[in-house]
UniProtKB/TrEMBL annotation:
InterPro entries: DUF7134, HATPase_C_sf, HATPase_dom, Sensor_HK_TwoCompSys, Sig_transdc_His_kin_sub3_dim/P. Pfam families: DUF7134, HATPase_c, HisKA_3. This is histidine kinase. Residues 305-398 form the Histidine kinase/HSP90-like ATPase domain. It catalyses: ATP + protein L-histidine = ADP + protein N-phospho-L-histidine. It comes from the Bacteria. Its EC number is 2.7.13.3. GO terms for molecular function: kinase activity. Residues 193-258 form the Signal transduction histidine kinase subgroup 3 dimerisation and phosphoacceptor domain. It comes from Nonomuraea harbinensis. It is an enzyme of class 2 (transferase). Keywords: ATP-binding, Kinase, Membrane, Nucleotide-binding, Phosphoprotein, Transferase, Transmembrane, Transmembrane helix, Two-component regulatory system.
Length: 402
């Protein structure tokens, strides 16, 4: 994966190599403060084990000198464990089959591989570490401990180091997995918020712009209208444009919200109580709309969703059946749910649309309404009837009062 300029994507790219050590082998090592502390501790551990071994070495002077040189080199090589962990582990493990003072570096290298490499690699090196005990047992027998005791001690050191490394690796994998899930959940939350804002923008702006287009079309095809009607239509155009810009500015303000940790406030949302005002606004634009509101005090959430559904249905009626009468009926009660039905005559039955007032649509309105109803736990149906009408019918749950 290629690093990107976005912080969260760069974090995802670096995270596996930092926690698991599965990337960048042989490349430049960039140590953090924690890495320096760990590496210094590992170096001191290797030196300490080597010094403990050096105090017990006896034999010919050339052998002692060789042990000391190899011991110093092996301790210094511990600083290469991040760049070449597998190679270092192989060399030190093979060398420990004869040289005692390589044992400290071999332990550190085995632990590093167990932490930073998969089991098929680390397990192979651990098995090699067990095998080299056999030649060391015969080539460098320990007189003080005895052969069997030394073999058991070496076996315990190899297995303990390997198991410790496996546990550390498993813990780091768990942490990395939890962070990945947290990142995925954050991305999903952002996606859902973007979809919510997109639906909000579509619902609001489609209504405002359709009203503006309707008034502008009336002015265009009625140039000889009385001055008061022209002034009223121009005022409606100005008001609709102002409200559309205000709604757009509020939505863009939410999108530009920089504080990711703070809760983004929702815009003031209309409810079912604002439905008469919506119908009055449509009537001022020249629509023939009748409202039958037969529901009580609908809760805020279903009322808000139902308002948006009716608003989009009225917008569609203006787009595709201009001049046709529209009937809006809202019924329901606690426990049985709340329903909204919007009916209008199809253009074929009612007559041709007014020239110049056709408003283009993307076809996403009804899809968005269906998704909105489904997310609210309800359903939405739409389509023509045999009588020549087009009906949009929605039902949303209304929990019974307790």
């Amino acid at each position: 994966m290629t690093p990107t300029s976005e912080p969260h994507q760069e974090y995802r790219w670096v995270l596996p190599s930092v926690l698991l050590g599965d990337g960048g082998a042989g490349g430049p090592v960039r140590r953090s403060t924690r890495d320096w502390i760990v590496d210094i501790a590992m170096f001191l551990l290797a030196c300490g084990l080597t010094l403990m071994t050096a105090l017990e070495i006896d034999g010919p002077t050339p052998l002692v000198a060789a042990e000391q040189v190899v011991g110093v080199i092996s301790c210094l090589s511990v600083w290469l464990r991040r760049r070449w962990p597998v190679g270092l582990a192989l060399v030190t493990t093979v060398a420990s089959g004869y040289f005692e003072m390589v044992g400290g570096a071999s332990v550190v290298a085995l632990f590093t591989v167990a932490v930073h490499r998969p089991f098929k690699i680390s397990g192979t090196i651990a098995g090699l570490g067990l095998l080299v005990i056999v030649p060391f047992y015969f080539l460098r027998p320990d007189v003080d401990l005895g052969g069997p005791t030394y073999a058991i001690l070496a076996l315990a050191i190899v297995l303990t180091t390997f198991a410790w490394g496996i546990v550390v690796r498993a813990r780091r994998q768990l942490i990395w997995s939890l962070r990945q899930r947290a990142d995925g959940a954050a991305e999903e939350a952002k996606r859902l918020e973007r979809e919510r804002i997109a639906r909000e923008m579509h619902d609001v702006l489609a209504h405002r712009l359709s009203m503006l287009s309707l008034h502008a079309g009336a002015l265009e095809f009625r140039p000889g209208a009385p001055p008061d009607e022209v002034a009223r239509a121009a005022g409606a155009i100005r008001a609709s444009a102002h409200l559309a810009l205000q709604d757009l500015r509020e939505v863009i303000g939410v999108l530009r919200h920089h504080d990711a940790d703070a809760e983004v406030p929702d815009r003031p949302q209309p409810t079912l109580a604002d439905l008469p005002a919506l119908v009055a606004e449509c009537e001022q634009a020249g629509m023939d709309v009748s409202l039958r509101l037969k529901a009580g005090e609908v809760p805020e959430k279903p009322g808000r969703n139902l308002y948006r559904i009716v608003q989009e249905a009225l917008t569609n009626a203006r787009k595709h059946a201009a001049g046709a009468p529209v009937t809006v009926t809202v019924t329901g009660g606690p426990g049985e749910g709340v329903s909204a039905e919007v009916r209008n005559w199809l253009p074929v039955r009612h007559g041709p649309r007014i020239p110049g007032v056709q408003i283009p649509g993307a076809g996403a309105g009804l899809i968005g309404l269906t998704e909105r109803a489904a997310l609210a736990g309800g359903r939405l149906e739409h389509g023509p009837t045999p009588e020549g009408e087009y009906v949009v019918r929605a039902w949303l749950p209304w929990p019974a009062r307790t």
